[in-house]
Amino acid sequence: MKIAIGADHGGFLLKEALKPYLVQAGHTVIDVGAPSDEPSDYPDIAAMVAQKVMRADSDRGIVICGSGVGACVAANKFPRIRASVCHDTYSAHQGVEHDDMNVLCLGARIIGEALAKDIVSSFISAKFAADVERYKRRLDKVLDIERRFSADNT
């Protein structure tokens, strides 16, 4: 799987710890930055990850900031992006299985490296349960909301 990953300065160290973990698990990692722990802005990083996923240059994305919240807000502004903050393994796999989540947002000041690896593993290994009618129906409703209220239709 191709995974775009990015972090602002607050998530830089966790991003750097997750990259070799993902590569060792057999994934291709696309690092969009930041290149260091020097101050950077989470909207810029979230936008780069979201665009990689939106354009199908990567299968999924991971964005890391201090809390995960700001990165999540920014990532969800992009069409076809379903991002969520997950600080537990259940939410990470359930978000994919039920809601077709494609961007995982993590808070480096909230969780540690070991838990982050478990959460990423749950996220990466999960698949959307498209054969479950209620999940497909609900996703279709979310996609309809996106179409009706996109910037082009307001």
Structure description:
Helices cover 47% and strands 16% of the residues. It is α/β, with parallel strands linked by helices and 154 residues long. It has one domain (2-128): Sugar-phosphate isomerase, RpiB/LacA/LacB (Ribose 5-phosphate Isomerase B, Chain: A). It has a five-stranded parallel β-sheet, sandwiched between helices. The model has no long low-confidence stretch (mean pLDDT 96).
In brief, what are we looking at here?
By secondary structure, the chain is α/β, with parallel strands linked by helices. The chain is built from six helices and five strands; from the N terminus they run βαβαβαβαβαα. The termini are far apart.
Helical region count?
Answer: 6
- Overall, the morphology is globular
- By secondary-structure content and strand pairing, the structural class works out as alpha/beta
CATH-scheme architecture: 3-Layer(aba) Sandwich
Determine the strand fraction and express it as a percent band.
15-25%
Q: What are the segments in which pLDDT stays under 50 over at least 5 consecutive residues?
A: none
Number of strands: 5
Features:
single chain; 154 residues; alpha/beta; Ribose 5-phosphate Isomerase B, Chain: A; 5-stranded parallel beta sheet; 5 strands; 16% strand
Could you give the topology of this structure?
Elements: E1 2-7, H1 12-24, E2 28-31, H2 42-54, E3 60-65, H3 69-75, E4 83-85, H4 89-99, E5 103-107, H5 113-125, H6 133-148
Parallel strand pairs: 1-2, 1-3, 3-5, 4-5
Helix pairs in contact: 1-5, 2-3, 4-5
